């Protein structure tokens, strides 16, 4: 039997509640399948660790993580005690950058049993592939002068390597799905980087003639995701555009508490990191009412990445059955606890 060694960082707030719940579901799914098992190693890094040691993780943290097959992370942040830029850059962004997790993948799908805030939510199921390392979020620029003379310059950086990598990943993903890629652009307003983005999309697209291809300006695309989300399969986007589109994706699904995400090292050189879209939710932490579905669906993405798509599908089916029976946490308008939702999902795993 294959054993996967997973580094677990529950983090802060509800991360410490939803991660153990997801581990229970993943262990049960592995047991039922019989081909593989997980060996979990918990790292207590995050804001409490910072308050004790002055660091979000130890100096050799990245080296430690490299020894694992994958990383399963909850959420990080205690905004009342540690500034968000310290907690974010000291752990999450550090891991994403140093372990070269260049691609961020976030699905959005209309789930059975979960009403979308859209008035006519047709049966949508799309995935946003977001470039995760450069673009508008490159640390390039500066500020000079002060007062009325103050100037701020932020450079967007698009490398051919990074852009091609994101496009190619999107096309490969589309081949395994409904065979269509939409590129998020804005070459009618942004004069250098986005025409370049379009050229690379066209060039890489020539290698994938069997895949349908379209290019939409980001403003139109945002409107389409509200009006006709069912028209999309895979969307490839730069760092900023992808960030915005994926929050929109989470919103039209019904709650940020269910949205999953993966930061992928697609070459397999270092571990990838699987973490839900939501944060540490200090407003509800410790009450046992956090929605575990985002973390559990994130676990499904880890199974998909490891090559067990059939097991991942079983987990998603169990989530949908649980929702369809009205077993929902308060963020979805229900009265169930995290424990009750988790137990129901485990019961529906077959
Ligand atoms: P948040 O996602 O933690 O919470 C936003 C709202 O959604 C809150 O009302 C919360 O109760 C609710 N919510 C989120 N996840 C939920 C779940 N699983 N079940 C039920 N309700 C849920 O975002 P917020 O409040 O902006 O940030 C709180 C802290 O988390 C900050 O320190 C922030 O920096 C951090 N954060 C960390 C992320 C990560 O680790 N990847 C991502 C986003 C925020
Ligand atoms: Mg965001």
Automatic annotation (TrEMBL):
PROSITE patterns (UniProt xref): IDH_IMDH
Gene3D superfamilies, per database record: Isopropylmalate Dehydrogenase
UniProt cross-references to Pfam families, sorted A to Z: Iso_dh
Highest taxon of the lineage: Bacteria
MF terms in GO: tartrate dehydrogenase activity
Keywords: Manganese, Metal-binding, NAD, Oxidoreductase
Domain Isopropylmalate dehydrogenase-like: 5-345
Cofactor list: Mg(2+); Mn(2+)
EC number: 1.1.1.83
Catalysed reactions, as listed in the record: (R)-malate + NAD(+) = pyruvate + CO2 + NADH
Family of the protein in this entry: Belongs to the isocitrate and isopropylmalate dehydrogenases family.
The protein's name: D-malate dehydrogenase (decarboxylating)
Native source species: Lysinibacillus capsici
């Amino acid at each position: 039997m294959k054993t996967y060694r997973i580094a677990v960082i529950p983090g802060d707030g509800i991360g410490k509640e939803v991660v153990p719940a997801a581990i229970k579901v993943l262990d049960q799914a592995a047991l039922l399948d019989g081909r593989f098992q997980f060996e979990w190693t918990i790292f207590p890094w995050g804001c409490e660790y910072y308050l004790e040691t002055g660091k979000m993780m130890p100096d050799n943290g990245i080296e430690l993580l490299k020894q694992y097959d994958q990383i399963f992370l909850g959420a990080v942040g205690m905004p009342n005690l540690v500034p968000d830029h310290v907690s974010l850059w000291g752990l999450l962004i550090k891991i994403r950058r140093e372990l070269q997790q260049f691609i961020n993948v976030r699905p959005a799908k209309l789930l059975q049993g979960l009403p979308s805030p859209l008035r006519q939510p047709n049966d949508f199921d799309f995935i946003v592939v977001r470039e995760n390392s450069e673009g508008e979020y490159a640390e390039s620029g500066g500020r000079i002068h002060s007062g009325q003379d103050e100037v701020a310059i932020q450079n967007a950086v698009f490398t051919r390597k990074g852009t091609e990598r994101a496009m190619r990943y999107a096309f490969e993903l589309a081949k395994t799905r409904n065979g269509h890629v939409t590129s998020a652009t804005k070459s009618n307003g942004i004069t250098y980087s986005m025409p370049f983005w379009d050229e690379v999309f066209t060039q890489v697209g020539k290698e994938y003639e069997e895949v349908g291809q379209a290019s939409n300006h980001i403003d139109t695309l945002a409107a389409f995701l509200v009006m006709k989300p069912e028209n999309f399969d895979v969307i490839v986007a730069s760092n900023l555009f992808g960030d915005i589109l994926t929050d929109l994706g989470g919103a039209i699904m019904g709650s940020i508490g269910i949205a999953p995400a993966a930061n992928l090292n697609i070459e397999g050189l270092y571990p990838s990191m699987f973490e839900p879209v939501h944060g540490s939710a200090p407003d509800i932490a410790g009450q046992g009412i956090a929605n575990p579905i985002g973390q559990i669906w994130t676990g499904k993405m880890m199974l998909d990445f490891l090559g067990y798509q059939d097991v991942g599908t079983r987990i998603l089916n169990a989530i949908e059955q649980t929702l369809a029976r009205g077993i929902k946490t308060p963020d979805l308008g229900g009265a169930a606890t995290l424990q009750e939702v988790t137990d129901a999902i485990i019961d529906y795993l077959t």
